[in-house]
Please model this.
Amino acid sequence: MRIGWVGLGALGLPSCLAFAEAGHEMFGYDVTDVYVAYLSGKKSLNEEEFSETLKSSSARLTPMASIQEVVDSAEVVYIAVQTPHSKLYGGETPAPESRQDFEYGFLAQAVRDVCAAAKRSQKLITVAVVSTALPGSFNKYLRSYFNEYTNVVYNPFFIAMGTTILDVRNPEFVLIGADDPSHADPLREIYAQIHDKPLQVMSIESAELTKVAY
Model:
């Protein structure tokens, strides 16, 4: 399948390469050009099997100059940009008494730009959000950007930094939140080419809760 990938960072680039290794045609975009050093071999990520996967799959990853180009090239567009939070809430130490949400500015901008690009091209695409979002975040921060040309689903990954490629290849299961179960069908096709693990489809709100609870 022709797949767009927005966000080629420490999680996004290894994931994108794992998809390409399975035979999918990938079209990637990032707001910075840091990933270029990794693709060229000048730098290496601290990821198991990164170098091997890069050699076997980089030919199927085409860097694009804009989100519009990604949307015009792809049937499904994944969004894997950061939703950062304070280090105090990272889980390494007891959390403070006060509570704090993630920062959704980067994710909201990416969703807005992808949806707007689909509308400009009048092209129906599936948009798969990978970035972690707490329960209620889609309705609060993202839903207003959806339009008649975008079927937006939530597809958070369960991975560990350092073993991203291995975890994408061999997950325990795939979680998809969708307003309509049929919106998950393109992702079923994508993952069937990568592994044979079970795929769980539920509402977006339930998927948001399942991600953070699991």
